[in-house]
Amino acid sequence: MDKKQQLITVATQLFVERGFENTPVSLICDTAKVSKGLVFHHFKSKDGLLRAIFEETTKKVADISSIDNINEDPYQQLRNIINSLFVQLEIDKTLFQLNLHLILQPKTRRLLNDLIGQRSSYILNHVKHIYGLIDPENATIRSYMFIAELDGIALNYLTIFEDYPLQEIQQQLIAKYTK
């Protein structure tokens, strides 16, 4: 792992454990065993590091919702989104927990507002495209409902329940949203 990625990984973990505002750059540097100069070289500021972390999460979210094959059946595209989300939730639980905290905290939300808006628009437009193939008249509302259900599941898995039945919920969603 290169030093830049190491800083992102360490900062992500510390931001989850301590919160963004309660994590000084010096602690990130000590934990990653790098100099402060390296942090400022790669990210310019602690805010820049936070934005880089959020951008990394956005890339993962974009990967989840990307169309591998635009010629695929729209129900298969929904199945792919569901399956990808559940895999990423398990693989990158810490990163998604941080993402949730960042969106909900007023200071970090203001700092990331443009990136949050870009990500939200991307996801909504992608899902609307799929639902436009299934139910053009109700594509927008069905897209919002689909996204809200996935967000609710992620919220419960990431913050509330210890023994969350993720695989069973995944199978139920696939049955619900696909033929």
Q: Would you kindly provide a written description of the structure presented here, covering whatever features stand out?
A:
The chain has 179 residues and is mainly α. The chain has nine helices and no strands. The termini are far apart. The mean pLDDT is 90.
Summary of the model, kept short:
The protein has 179 residues and is mainly alpha-helical. Helices cover 81% and strands 0% of the residues.
Radius of gyration: 18 Å
Shape: elongated
SSE sequence, one letter per element: HHHHHHHHH
SS elements, strand count: 0
Termini separation (Å)? 42 Å
Helices and strands, with pairings:
Elements: H1 3-18, H2 25-32, H3 36-43, H4 46-65, H5 74-91, H6 93-104, H7 106-134, H8 139-160, H9 166-177
Helix pairs in contact: 1-2, 1-4, 1-6, 3-4, 4-5, 4-7, 5-7, 5-9, 7-8
Features:
single chain; 179 residues; mainly alpha; 9 helices; 0% strand; elongated
